[in-house]
């Protein structure tokens, strides 16, 4: 542990559960790196992701975005390809993009969008895109004929959340430079979406723990009973 981390840790009571406002004030205060640290949210859920009916997955547009410039790849053809280009997609194509990814191991993009008629082509990349969480999915709005809407939302700060095999959701909700107010707004938007996405098959306590941390800083526990306050 570095000097900055130790100094930051002194500001946090590990046994305490903080309100969202207290948490964001603290995470900004404890972000001491010389670069603009990313603020990350970790949500432990009372679900068993091994069961299909307890999967938690979706997407939400954060009011203030993530602070990251996102490169969007769109699989589309004809008029939809032209529409994607006009909407600001960084890469647009069909089979040639599949070849580039497969043969050159190219991943110069952050999110993949596809029109439904292209999923047969995109399916060839399932083993490559799947493990990286890049496979287009209707639930996250990345399989759609409305490519303009999809691209606009992504560029505006849309983030995808998905519970992993350890029942935890990890999502970036902004940068230190946002300040506490904007981070709180992004935090609330994401938590509202996750709470609404609770599977009916999930029993017992749904939000087991919620914590926030900066890239180089210590974790700060949020009072899960007050995440929407």
Protein topology:
Elements: H1 3-9, H2 20-29, E1 38-45, E2 57-61, E3 72-75, H3 78-87, E4 91-93, H4 95-104, E5 111-114, H5 119-122, H6 126-129, H7 147-156, E6 158-162, E7 168-175, H8 180-196, E8 207-214, E9 220-222
Parallel strand pairs: 3-4, 3-5
Antiparallel strand pairs: 1-7, 1-8, 2-6, 8-9
Helix pairs in contact: 2-8, 3-7
Description:
The chain is an alpha/beta fold and 229 residues long. 31% of the residues lie in helices and 21% in strands. It folds into two domains: 12-65 and 158-226, Ribosomal protein L1/L10, rRNA-binding domain (Ribulose 1,5 Bisphosphate Carboxylase/Oxygenase, 2-Layer Sandwich); 72-156, Ribosomal protein L1/L10, domain II (Rossmann fold, 3-Layer(aba) Sandwich). The chain has a four-stranded antiparallel sheet with strand order 7-1-8-9. Strands 4-3-5 form a three-stranded parallel sheet, sandwiched between helices. Strand 3, helix 3 (78-87) and strand 4 form a beta-alpha-beta unit.
């Amino acid at each position: 542990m570095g000097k900055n981390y130790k100094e930051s840790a002194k500001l946090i009571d590990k046994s305490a559960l903080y309100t969202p406002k207290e948490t964001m004030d603290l995470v900004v205060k404890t972000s001491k790196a010389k670069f603009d640290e990313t603020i990350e949210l970790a949500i432990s859920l009372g679900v068993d992701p091994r069961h299909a009916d307890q999967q938690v997955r979706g997407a939400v547009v954060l009011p203030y975005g993530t602070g990251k410039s996102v490169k969007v790849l769109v699989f589309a053809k004809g008029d939809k390809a032209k529409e994607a280009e006009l909407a600001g997609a960084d890469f647009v194509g069909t089979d040639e993009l599949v070849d580039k990814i497969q043969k050159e191991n190219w991943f110069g993009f952050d999110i993949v969008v596809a029109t439904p008629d292209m999923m047969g082509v995109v399916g060839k990349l399932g083993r490559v895109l799947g493990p990286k969480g890049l496979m287009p999915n209707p639930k996250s709005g990345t399989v759609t004929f409305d490519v303009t809407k999809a691209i606009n939302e992504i560029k505006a700060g849309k983030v995808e959340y998905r519970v992993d095999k350890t029942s935890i959701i990890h999502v970036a909700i902004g940068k230190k430079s946002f300040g506490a107010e904007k981070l709180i707004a992004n935090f609330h938007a994401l938590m509202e979406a996750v709470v609404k996405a609770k599977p009916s098959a999930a029993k017992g306590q749904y939000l087991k723990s919620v914590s926030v941390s900066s890239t180089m800083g210590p974790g700060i526990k949020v009072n899960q009973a007050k995440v929407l306050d």
